[in-house]
Amino acid sequence: MADSPAKNLVQLQEKALIRPTPARFSWAALAAALLVGPAIGLGWAWTAEALQDYFAPPGIFPLLIGVFCGLTVVVLVRYLQFGHRQTIFLAVVLTALVAAVGREYLAFRTWCCLKESLPIIAPGETDTRESHREQARLSFDNFLRDEAQQGRTLFTTYADRRWAVWLSCAIEGLLLIFSALAVSLPAVVAPYCGRCGSWYRTEISIRLDPITAERLATLIDLELRKVPRPPRCRLSICQGRCGPARLELSWERAYGTVELLRLWLEKEQFQAAAALLENVQKVVKKKAGGNVG
Ligand SMILES: [Zn+2]
Question: Ligand 1 centre and the CA of 21: distance in Å?
Answer without folding.
Answer: 8
